Amino acid sequence: MRPCRGRFAPSPTGALHFGSLVAALGSCLDARSRGGEWLVRMDDLDPPRVAPGAADDILRTLEALGFAWDGAVLRQSERGDAYRAALARLRAAARVYACSCSRREIADSALPGAEGYVYPGTCRSRGLAEGAGRAVRVDTRGAAIAFDDAVQGRFAPDLERDHGDFVVLRADGIFAYQLAATVDDADQGITDVVRGADLLASTPRQLWLQRLLGLPAPRYAHLPVAVNPRGEKLSKQTGAAPVDRSRPAEALSGALAFLGHEPPGDALAAGTDGLWSWAIDTWRIERVPRRAAIVTIAPP
Ligand code: GLU
User: Fold this and answer.
1) 288 and 229 housed in the same domain
2) Claim to verify: residue 109 and residue 173 sit in the same structural domain
3) Pocket of ligand 1 contains residue 138 by CB under 6 Å
């Protein structure tokens, strides 16, 4: 058995809010309750989306709430060589191709799928040269994927039908999240990926890339996502408030309750230290509600 190792991989687009705190806490408790390691990675791959100062602000909030991560924080913005090497392997295996289709062309010719449009494979046999303004896509033909999610249950999607050949290098030259996350999880030796259920649709693509690259597949657990009464995921865009790091015990206990682990009064009275030791002893992934989303009216 490999020792268990989890991770939290926030995108530094703004301050930590209740929704991302839930992912941080669930991934940390899942690892720590089994004596495992827990790492933090910054998904700062997409420069226009990165908010100046947000990465440090997220880390300060995590510290204020009593989170302690192992090792240095990995930053995707410094990982270009690793992503290029993975893409070279996919290219050598003839699993990727250049694509010149615009968003408009895809919208006009494709059917809606699990997330956006299903790419119909237009450029697959065109033999285009890679280069500026062209995306690189991975071939999904024959991708029979099945996995058991520790919270959401069994999934056996048809990748070609539900997503089609997906982008691994964007037309603007930025590596796609799917490739970066797959390569980073493998290089960091992550055994357990615990994150929000909004990323459930990404998992088959990452499993497919793992298979093509000969990488081990982690265990996956997708936590319910906190949504507002309009059904929108809490995020900077939907106006979610930053976690109040001057009230760390309240923030932690709110996230624990959301994950099916409401702390008893004496744990709460003992502050963040008391909450952490109670939570590490008590944590069972089976207690997390088996739901994709939970309406959260007033996040602490
Ligand atoms: N950076 C992604 C997000 O904040 C999470 C990526 C992951 O956990 O794989 O939604």
Assistant:
1) yes
2) yes
3) no
pLDDT for 194 = 98
**242 and 260 in one domain?**
yes
> Which of 7, 11, 209 for mutating ligand 1's site (highest number of atoms within 8 Å of CB)?
11
In the chain, % of residues over pLDDT 70: 98
Distance of CA 228 to the CA centre of its chain: 20
Query: What mean pLDDT do residues 36-55 have?
Result: 96
- What does pLDDT average to over the chain? 94
CB of 10 sitting under 6 A from ligand 1: yes
Bridge partners, 156 (sequence order): none
For residue 65, the enclosing domain spans 5-77+181-295
Hey, which of 177, 185, 210, 233 would you mutate to test ligand 1's pocket, going by the most ligand atoms within 8 Å of its Cβ? 177
Structure tokens at 90: 């996919």
Determine the distance separating the centroid of ligand 1 and the alpha carbon of 194, expressed in angstroms: 10
pLDDT > 90? residue 171: yes
Residue 195 is inside which H or E element, if any? strand 192-196
Q: Are residues 19 and 138 in the same domain?
A: no
CA of 286 to the centre of ligand 1 (A): 22
Q: How far is CA 76 from the centre of its chain?
A: 13
> Pick from 146, 178, 210: which residue ends a domain?
178
Establish if 300 belongs to a structural domain.
no
126's tokens? 């065109």
223 and 147 co-located in one domain: no
Distance 101 CA to ligand 1 centre (A): 27
Give the chain's domain count.
Answer: 2
pLDDT at 298: 57
My answer on whether 231 and 288 are in the same domain is yes
Buried b (16+ CB within 10 A) or exposed e, 165-192: bbbbbbbeebbbbbbbbbbbbbebebbb
Q: What is the CATH number of the domain that holds 51?
A: 3.40.50.620
0.85 exceeded by pTM: yes
Q: What is the pLDDT of residue 300?
A: 46
Q: Does the beta carbon of 43 lie inside 6 Å of ligand 1?
A: yes
Is 123 contained in some domain?
yes
Cα of 46 vs centre of ligand 1, distance in Å, is 13
For residue 23, the ligand 1 atom closest to its alpha carbon is 8
How do residues 65-107 score in pLDDT, each as one tens digit? 999 999 999 999 999 999 999 999 999 999 999 999 998 889 8
| Ligand 1 center to 216 CA (angstroms) | 19
